[in-house]
Amino acid sequence: MVAALVPPPQFDTASFESYRPDPEYPSQAEAVEMCMRFAGKKPQTKSSGGFFGMFKRQPEMKPGIYLDGGFGVGKTHLLASIWHAHPGRKYFGTFLEYTSLIGALGYQEAVRTMRGCQLIAIDEFELDDPGDTMMMSKFLGELVDSGTSIAATSNTPPNALGEGRFAAQDFLREITKLADVFQTLRIDGTDYRRRDFEGHAVRVSDGSLARLVDERVKAGGVVAHDRFDDLIAHLAKVHPSKYIRMIEGVTALALDDVHELHDQADALRFVAFIDRVYDAEIPIIASGVSLDGIFAGGMIDGGYRKKYLRCVSRLIASTGAANIPEADHLS
């Protein structure tokens, strides 16, 4: 489990240079510079402030950095870039992966294993789980005391309903003992995935889905083909930390008879699963209801709004990445 704490495959080559800041949101380019400094790299851009500005002393970096912004602004890309650029022993994982590690090893053994590392990178810090948040706060506090740097992004807590609501203050409040070690970077912007994929998730007929699956299998692909209901039922029997193992070696995911979800627990498990599918860059082929419309019963406007909207964005991108012929698209 410790050896697996590295960035997901899609971020294997993530770098500050490959980040695409949106010129309409200057905070994105500013975040790149600050992240580079945090990782011990010299920013490529010149400091503003004219000739004398070049001699202005840069503020000392804190041992922790928190990337705060809406979904799809590239927080994970920047987090992975920090990880790649940062020297020494280091770990990268989601909040769930770290809490699962603590559960498997035990708290003291987990601290002993991580102590002495130079960097802990945490993606999607789960502010909506008070118990685990407090445990992680204590865990990270012990590591910071031993010289470890912390870089983090987070999900918005349940009471932050708006898509554009930033979570920095909620994050700092929940990790009260560590708040002073973090420098927060607010990253404005719109979902970068929508730059490439607009509209709805691609859906196909049952007949087209069967043919597309057959073509991929004959071409040597490994397609996980299931009824949507069967997948939802199976996810309820597997701990979310094991979702990544379900898709090892899979080159495409095919889902029959997609329909709306009305149970919040089912919906949140599906969100966690899609996070792993998206990280593994697995395209999705689906029939039935368009995948961007599955969160029913007011879920999309409830306490987990940001999680659902991020998932919708990833579903649109993942079905678009399947490169399904236009003739097979259903309106």
Automatic annotation (TrEMBL):
This is Cell division protein ZapE. NCBIfam families: ZapE (NF040713). PANTHER family: AFG1-LIKE ATPASE, ATPASE N2B. InterPro entries: ATPase_AFG1-like, P-loop_NTPase. Keywords: ATP-binding, Cell cycle, Cell division, Nucleotide-binding. It comes from Pseudoclavibacter albus. One of its GO terms (biological process) is cell division. The keyword Nucleotide-binding applies. Pfam families: AFG1_ATPase (PF03969).
